[in-house]
Each structure stands twice: as structure tokens, then as C-alpha cells.
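If it is no trouble, can you show me the amino acids of a protein and the C-alpha cells describing how it folds?
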Amino acid sequence: MGRRFALLDRDGTITKEGHYLSEPDKVELLPNASRGLREMSEMGLGLVLVTNQSGIGRGLFDVERLDQIHQRLRQLLSRAGVALDGIYFCPHTPEDGCDCRKPRTGLVMRAAEELGFEPADAFVIGDKACDIQMGRRIRATTFLVKTGYGSEEANRSDLGPDFVVADLLEAARIIGRLF
């Protein structure tokens, strides 16, 4: 078996939820996010960001601005000793019907091909139904974090994540026991 990966949502999972976050200086890590990611990395897990960014398709910001936001995210994580192995984003709106918008699996399949991992061996971590649904589609182990929208989503009886956790640090501790 090759290297295993954590496939992570951005807004509400790693960073504070921001309605169509479009300003790099507004990027703010959630409490315990960098610590949890560092623990995952120290276990040997690869870390990949998988994020829907329909603000691009809606004309609220462009890919250049998204790159600046992700550069700021990488800087904040780097200060905490964390490096992402990849960032994959869907720029489309829900109405576009693309194969890359979560809960569809296009972004994961591209990441798996480029980084050489088996999607079913991954850990999918996010705060929304689309994250858990994507994880289920690839038969990965799923974690719903109660940060961002996760507290509301945790009340859904139809969602069925493998684990519901407070944050990325709790997810890392559980993964450590599973790994």
C-alpha cells in the first residue's frame, strides 16, 4: 500500500468560514487546525486541500485572487510546520454540472492520479454534507468536523460520517489510532 492521504475541505475545516472568502488578509486558521494537520503530517499522511470555489464561477473573484488566498494559507500553515501536498479546487457553480464540484469525485481522482494514492485509503475531512458524500463515493473514511457548518450538519440523520469530531486535532488523534 502506498502513502495515505487526508483530503481536507478549506472553509470551516482548516480556515474560519468566510462567505465567499476573497481577501488573502482575511484567511484565518481555526483553533487546533495547524496542530491537527501537523500531527497528521508527522504520521506520514499526505495533506491535500479539496475545495469548491464557486465564487470564481459567480464572478466574485478570479483564479489569481484564489492563488493569493492559497498562498496566504500556505504561509500560515508553514509557520506552524505544515505543508500541503496539493490544492485542488472547483471554480464552477452548482448549476454548471461539472464533475469536479464536491460531492462529485473529479478533484479527488485528479489528485490521486497526480500524487499516486488510492482514494479509498484516504481520510476525507470536512464540515459539510458534500464532503462526507464525496468521501462515501470514493469509499474513504469520513470525518465531519463540528467547526464551520459541521455542528448543524452533525444533526442530519442521513449523512452518516464515520466519525464526528470537534476539530482537526481530534480527527488527527482518531486517525492515529486507525493508522
The first helix runs from residue 33 to 42.
